[in-house]
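re: ur question from yesterday

yeah so i grabbed the chain u mentioned. its 153 aa long if i counted rite. heres the sequnce exactly as i have it in my notes:
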Amino acid sequence: MAMWRDKTVIHKLSAVQVTALAERLNEYLTKDITLLKKNGPPYKWNPFILRLELLLALLRTRESSEPTISSIFSYGSSLCNQLLSTVEKITDKQGESLAYQLQQPKVVARVKLTVSKPAGYHRTPDLLYGLKLYLSGDDGADLITITELVNNA
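ran it thru and got these C-alpha cells back, copy pasting raw so excuse formatting
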C-alpha cells in the first residue's frame, strides 16, 4: 500500500531490491493461483489483491531515470515475461473468481482503474486486464487510467 500512498517510495528501491521483490512476488502469485477458491474467505483474497496492486506499482519503475532500474520490466525481458505468464494463468484460473470476490463487501481493491476491454474479457477484472496490457506492451496500456486510490482499507 505504501507504494501507492507515496509515489516516490518505488523510486527509492535499488535495481537489486526491485528484482528480488518482483521475483518473490511472482512466487507468491503462482502459489496463490492454486490456493484461492471462488467462495473463499476475504482474508485470503485481500492479500492476493494487494500483491497484484504491488505488481502494478512495481511497473512504475519503468519511469526511473536509472537505466538499470527502468529496464527491469522492459517489454520482452525475462522477468516481464515470467510475470506476464503468471498474470495470464491467474486470468485463466482465477479471473472469474476474482471478479466475483471484488463484488463482495469485505474484499477491497485499493487501486481503481478505467480500462477499455474487448468483449471476450468482460469477466476479467480491470486490474488483471491492465496488468496484462502493461506487461505485454500492448498499445491499449496507454488508455488505462487510475481513477482512484483507496487509502482507508
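noticed a couple things. The first helix runs from residue 2 to 5. also Residues 75 and 137 are 6 Å apart (CA to CA).
anyway ttyl
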